[in-house]
Amino acid sequence: MTLLLPYRQVTAPKTDYSEANPTEKVRFTRQFSGFGDAVLLAQLLAKPSSAKSPLMLGVGFGFRLPTGASQPDHQWAGGLSRDPVLQVGAGTLDPIGSLTAGYRLGKTSIYTNALARISGGQNIHSYRYGNEYQLSAGFRRPVSEWFDASLTATTILTGHDYDKGSIVGNTGGTWFYLTPGISFRSGDINTGFSLQLPLYQNVNLSQLSSSYVFNANFSCGFDLGKNKSAASKSTRTVLPPPTGAPSGFEKFDETTKHHSPDVSTVSLGAEVTLADYTKAGKITLFEFYGDKCTACAAFEGPLREFLNSNPDFILRKINIGDGESKVVKQHNITVTPTIIAIDETGKELLRQDGATIAALESLTQNK
After folding, report:
1. Where in the chain is the domain with CATH 2.40.160?
2. Containing H/E element for 104?
3. Rounded to the nearest 5 degrees, what angle is found at the Cα of 119, between the Cα atoms of 116 and 124?
4. What's the topology of domain 2-220?
5. Strand 147-158 vs strand 173-186: parallel, antiparallel, or unpaired?
6. Are 65 and 4 in contact (CB under 8 A)?
7. Cβ contacts of residue 46 below 8 Å, gap of 6+?
């Protein structure tokens, strides 16, 4: 589930005829700022990628929520439509649908996405925004343990707006953007920066357009399922971690049978056959990690907590060394931490690049 809450600040000079003297043109500056319409999008990974099948397919559905201001601020002379172009919100509940496909090619992830936003009709000011369709394609590649670089090409097509039932001529068109970007990851926290560069535009009549758009985003994941699981175990007491223990360390009180997780390191960069390290009646988690990987260190505590709570799982750790070791090429590792889960027969149950506890919780529900 993704929730986006944009903040916009726009300053734009405009020219119009004076209300006092209809033959005189006046120049003035308009300013708009505030939080725009929030976007709530649920995404379902219909087909996750794996070492045997690097193709990924996903679907999404959600809404653009009317959280931003949508009051048109200016009535143009001559009875032309009002001007809501720079407002931070649309004032309607618009459904959104998306389709995503990705393919992992070595360390490079190639992806494409199609998205449609359908207008929810007129807002309370009798203004209706046009539908919007987007098609994008690009690639992402890690440049270090913490940084990814990406390049995305996007085509956007929008329809005409309507003001009080009449078409607004200077709205709608087609745009093509090229967007280079870089992102920093640490555990469930991601920070990204990108620069949207317009290469082509074909708009109706005269419209306000930007020479470039700079984007900064911050995201943080929350494992709600883990909290629910912890609350259901009334006999467990969570204590502060002792000195030297990883964050997330837990002890059990005297009413709970002590469980010591089965954890061992099976490779320091050499090739390894995963099926050789399975155990009867257990699901084996293979964690590919690096010594300088901050995301791996942040993941360590929650992973140990998960193992404490789920005795049917064991952990086998694989150190990727300098990132160019044989085990990296053997299992096509592009991001750390990566988790591969297999059952006692050697069947792969899960592969996740940039591992999260939520993915492991899903394995407990499918047992």
Report:
1. 2-220
2. strand 94-105
3. 155
4. Porin (2.40.160)
5. antiparallel
6. no
7. 57, 58, 59
Q: Which CATH homologous superfamily contains domain 233-365?
A: Glutaredoxin (3.40.30.10)
Cα 337 to Cα 352: distance, rounded to the nearest angstrom: 9
Residue type at 40 in one-letter notation = L
pLDDT of residue 230: 32
User: 261: which 2 tokens?
Assistant: 């997780």
Please give the Cα distance from 94 to 65 (Å, whole number). 7
Query: Could you give the residue range(s) of every CATH 3.40.30.10 domain in the chain?
Result: 233-365
Q: What is the pLDDT of residues 189-225, one digit of tens each?
A: 778 899 999 999 998 877 767 778 888 887 765 544 4
DSSP 13-37: EEEEE-SS-TT-EEEEEEEEEEE--
- Spatial CB neighbours of 64, under 8 Å, sequence gap ≥ 6: 37, 38, 39, 90, 92, 93, 94, 96, 117
* Stated pTM of the model: 0.59
Rounded to whole angstroms, the Cα distance separating 252 from 236 reads 5
> What confidence tens digit (pLDDT) does each residue in 168-178 have?
888 899 999 99
At 267-309, the pLDDT tens digits run: 988 999 999 999 888 999 999 998 888 888 888 888 988 898 8
Q: Please tell me the total number of residues recorded for the chain in this structure.
A: 367
The pairing of beta strand 283-289 with beta strand 313-319: parallel
Model pLDDT, residue 72: 63
> In one letter, which amino acid is 161?
D
Task: Give the per-residue pLDDT at 8.
Answer: 76
pLDDT in tens, 220-248: 655 444 443 333 333 232 333 333 333 33
| pLDDT for the residue 257 | 41
Query: Which has the closest alpha carbon to 337: 367, 305, 366, 294?
Result: 294
Cα–Cα distances (Å) from 28 to 14, 15, 86, 248, 339, in that order, read 6, 6, 15, 57, 58
State the DSSP string of 161-228.
Answer: EEETTEEETT--EEEEEEEEEEEEEETTEEEEEEEEEEEEEEESSS----S-EEEEEEEE---HHHHH
